[in-house]
Amino acid sequence: MARFRTWVGIALAGALSMSLAGCSSTGGKRAEDARKAAAAQGRAAVNTPRWTFAMITHSGDGDTFWDIVQSGAKQAAVKDNINFLYSHDDQAQQQAQLVDAAVDKKVDGIIVTLAKPDAMKAALARAEKAGIPVVTVNSGSAQSKAFGALTHIGQDETIAGEAVGEELNKRGRKKALCVLHEQGNVGHEQRCDGVAKTFHGTLRKLYVNGTSMPDVQSSIGAKLQADPSLDAIVTLGAPYADTAVKARTDAGSKAEIDTFDLNAKVAAELKDGTLGFAVDQQPYLQGYQAVDLLWLYKYNGDVLGGGKPVLTGPQIITRDQASALAEYTERGTR
Hints:
Structural class: alpha/beta
Radius of gyration: 21 Å
Low-confidence stretches: 1-27, 36-40
């Protein structure tokens, strides 16, 4: 009977979610208010123990991408009766120390990014020795299995880069600049290398200080002024797309600005033609599925992926799709 009530609760939660998704645009705010109220009540859809899961990412301060990841993780945590802890540091050694702290707290599961995998290896070995299941997200798919993780959730960065190269070809671009805002991030290198693999034109890399938008803007602007033949700029994160737009304006360039990742600003600029296209890796889904898969493993011993990464992208978003996604970006889930 308890199991029956549990799955009835899940079914009712799913029905509520579908009904909210089907609301008209005029009822969108009411639907969103209802969703927030339901989350605030903290009512779980299951009666499993209140396990504690810790997510530790390589995010820097103020990176809105990770707000979307957290949004998904928190929503799943409410549904799954999980005590969710989040911490981050863009310095690899400090991120590893946060993983060590989670192990010391004897959490029931760890979600972690592997932007700089070598620095994380020992910490994840400690988690494995302590019997704490780990799911990796977003970055480090190539190292995830070797480091003892159950599975990896995210997009294959090389495949995503290849998709960008193909899209640039469709648009007739001939000379592109790939802007890397975090040196040492293996995922960023894979993205640009993927672009180079399929792009028929010339691609150059530009390394910038991603913690300083003025530096990013001036660096891109200098390249555009020095080489007027550049007809495409590819940024690797949504906040940097708008900065590239400003650099293009200052330089008097007509280069198309394209970007990885999606947010409300990017969606708006896709709609008005300021940006060409965006590559969405669905960060909400990364956070949501990471919590859900850890819960499934704790509850039922389930592991998804069959030893391969669970892909959440890439999805190429153009002007045509931007309008349909605008509502989701405004509420912080895309």
